[in-house]
Amino acid sequence: MKKNFFRPSALALLGLALSSGVHAQSGSSNYNSSWYVAPSVNGIDPDGSFGVDKRGEGLGLRIGKPVSQHWDIQFGPTFSRAKVGSDRYDQSTLGVDGLYMFSRGKFRPFIMAGLGAQYDRVRSAGVTTGGTSPYVSAGLGFQAAFTERWGMQADLRHAYSRLSGNTFSFDRANTTTATIALTYTFDSPKAAPIARPVSVPYTPPVAMVEPAPMAQAPVPMTPPPAPAPMAPLPEPARFEKITLSSTDLFAFDSAELPAQHAKLDAIAQALGKDTSVKNVMITGYTDRLGSAVYNIRLSQRRADAVKAYLMQQGVGETRLMAMGKGEANPVVQCDEKKRPALIECLSANRRVEVDQITIEQRVQ
After folding, report:
1. Are 71 and 89 in contact (CB under 8 A)?
2. Which of 112, 88, 135, 133 is nearest to 38 (CA)?
3. Distance CA 342, CA 147 (A)
4. Which residue has the higher pLDDT, 164 or 139?
């Protein structure tokens, strides 16, 4: 069969997918499970055995749905053709693909495998030959999100079909297809619910006094002195998560803290008074503006800056942990069109949480 002229493109896509996929693994673990459509334009390189050894073009439509954190399912038809003089080759397919997604961030590289049926037809010297055959395919590509609903998909796939039972003089064919599609998702992702702390009222124990044993004979008794009133028990300590607005701590797109900050000083003072509090987690978040990789790094730098500040105030390094989660766990969803208004609306998502096992501060 013929050589694969798409090989340089396949190697380039594979390198891009693998290099980007490693960084993208730390992106958001949430994903939008809504259905989406992907109308496409295709470039096809048919098997030269069909007699039309020339690249062609075509159209397609894919309907897809994420079914888990790592898998998408897509199905739909394509139609492609290639011409050399009066000779013409047409190919129509209907198939289903499984896409393994390396990331659910804004850039999503994937590998894919599929199967389906294809109809091949050749018109040459006034004679038409054709038939329907099964095929299997494999490929790789990526998706890129422009907004919450709009994006694109590009992929490169190679299909192998068995032509037995058709009118062709050969029994197998290989086809390489490059696809670029515009994707539209029907529903926006839903924000995860925010956990609220639950306070439990404290009921002090009731003091119990044992009755005095009865005397065997009537003896004059001196009544015991009345017990002194018990001092009320102190209110038990409560724990609350502290959320600090990144807008108050940092300038936009910055991880530089001011020389002094009252809220951070209060946290350091509380941790200094109660040295039993360990494993204090400092978690940085960003909004969805910018790439997922950049946002992870910015949120990590901000969490590290808060940790360094608390260490300068005397809190031991072994009691503190810092983690950046980028644009994960958004508090608000915003659809403003103008960038200044969108930045303002998303300010609640730019935050640092200080947390004792998920951040907590002891208060009285």
Report:
1. no
2. 112
3. 13
4. 139
Q: Residue 76 contacts by C-beta under 8 Å, 6 or more apart in sequence?
A: 60, 61, 62, 63, 94, 95
pLDDT tens digit sequence for 26-57? 444 568 899 999 999 999 999 887 878 789 99
CB 43 within 8 A of CB 212: no
Residue 362 β-bridge partners: 239
State how far the Cα of 38 lies from the Cα of 155, in Å rounded to an integer.
12
The phi, psi pair for 6, rounded to 5°, reads -85, 0
User: Can you give the pLDDT at residue 22?
Assistant: 44
Which pair of tokens denotes residue 147?
A: 């907004």
Query: Exposed, middle or buried, 72 (CB in 10 Å: 0-12/13-18/19+)?
Result: buried
pLDDT band with cut points at 50, 70 and 90 for residue 252:
confident
Structure token digits, residue 359: 């951040």
- For residues 126 and 183, give the distance between their C-alpha atoms in angstroms, rounded to a whole number: 40
Cα 158 off chain centre by: 29
Taking residues 310-339, what's their average pLDDT?
88
Residue 328's DSSP bridge partners are none
pLDDT value, residue 45: 92
Structural tokens at position 263? 């809220």
Return phi, psi of residue 361, to 5°.
-125, 140
CA angle 6–181–187, rounded 5-degree value: 145
